[in-house]
Amino acid sequence: MLYSKQYNCAKDDNAMKRLVFLIPVIFIISCSTVFPPSREVRPYRVPETRRPPKQKTVEPAVGNVFNASFNDVWSATLDGLKWMKWAPAFTDELEGTIRLKEAYVYRNSGKLLRIYNWPPSQETAQSNIDDYLLKVSDYNPGFNLGRPVFTQESMIVRLGGLSESKVKVDIDYEIRPYFTSIGFTDAVKSSGYIESLLLERIRENLSGRPQARR
User: Fold this and answer.
1) Which one, of 172, 186, 173, 175, lies nearest residue 150 by Cα?
2) Which residues touch 117 (CB under 8 Å, ≥6 apart)?
């Protein structure tokens, strides 16, 4: 009887030892299922975008800046407008502003004329300034516009002294064509032809006068 009790106690001790051994194993297995193995977290890298190479900018040649005194450029501008046969309506030398008279350009007997009042209907009845418009503006002839009879034009010239020996001349030139079918249209953009004529004339007028060195 005593042996049986000792045997049962030994059996219970072995069972307890096995249980003590199995508890950490069960805990490890359960943790591995609840908490999956960690993965390496790599830092996020923004994808690189290749920018196109910068293009070299070429500054356009400035044709409206003159190496001369303000008084010389002012006089040369007035002489150039006189050569163009377009009379000023208002001048302010202190402000450097020249406003020309509102003008009308039409063709009479094959000659282009610039006048300062509404052109007479008997003279404009045969007028056609299609070639003139193509030269001085970006006018695009259209079938629904009819024949261009004359233009209404305005111009403001502004002189600005950049230094004592350098003056800039800005020209604001506006052209409104008049057609037989619809009358006046919106102003058309200048082609720069008239402006280039005036600037070239200013340059020629200054050529005989001492100019500042660049």
Assistant:
1) 175
2) 104
Residue at 143: amino acid letter: F
pTM: 0.66
3-state secondary structure of 166: strand
Token pair 């010239």 in the structure block, residue = 157
Q: How far apart are CA 146 and CA 132, in angstroms?
A: 15
Spell out the per-residue pLDDT of the chain, length 214, in tens. Answer: 434 444 444 455 555 556 555 555 555 555 544 444 445 545 434 344 344 444 433 333 358 999 999 999 999 999 999 999 999 999 999 999 999 999 999 999 999 999 999 999 999 999 999 999 999 998 887 667 789 999 999 999 999 999 989 999 999 999 999 999 889 988 999 999 999 999 999 999 998 754 444 4
Per-residue exposure over 127-152, b if at least 16 CB sit within 10 Å of its own CB, e if not: bebeebbeebbebeeeeeeeebbbbb
- Which pair of structure tokens corresponds to residue 75? 């006089």
Closest by CA position to 155, among listed 207, 203, 107, 199? 199
Vertex 208 angle, CA 202 and 209, to 5°: 85
- Domains parsed from the chain with CATH numbers: 66-206 (3.30.310)
Q: What is the DSSP letter of 171?
A: E
